[in-house]
Amino acid sequence: MYQDIAQKIIELKNADFELREKLIQNGKLSEGYNPEMEKLHNKNAKELEVIISQIGYPSIDKVGEEASQSAWIIIQHAIAQPDFMRKCAKELEKAVNENKADPINLAYLTDRIAVFEGKPQLYGTQFDWDENGEMSPNSFDDLTKVNERRKQIGFNTLEEQIKIMRKRVKDENQLRPIDFEKRKLEMEEWRKKTGWIK
Asked: Which InterPro entries does the record cross-reference, listed alphabetically (predicted)?
């Protein structure tokens, strides 16, 4: 067990959560990708990349459950680092196949990458505001197949998850975007700029 590394990973994740909480309190979480948040996510990704180059993927057997989960959160949040996220997805898949990481984490990461690449999700884990101002899953391939895949890894149905997500944004006082089309265009530009799409 890499105790020091485990502690470091947990600290990186805690800094992320603290900043998110601060943005929620200030009502700034819904206003696009906050620059302070992006800076922290990129810094965390760089630090985790160094750790992965030293010990490989921070799987449960190497760093324990909490730090492994924290590493996955850092990867999920490294949205301005497409190559890093894709590389981590491959490493995470290996760890899952060896029963050293949670398949649910792989489902989330696979879906997140698919959404940024403009492809349909397999598990329906990624949500965003739709044109009606509702929090809805990003595009997915087929509801029946999605629910089958979700069931295989212990998820609830997508219909149940939609209700949970809509309640969460309400509880966090997240506001739907004022101009949906403008936000869509900004997102498209950001995906091009960061290298998710050409």
From this structure: DUF6624
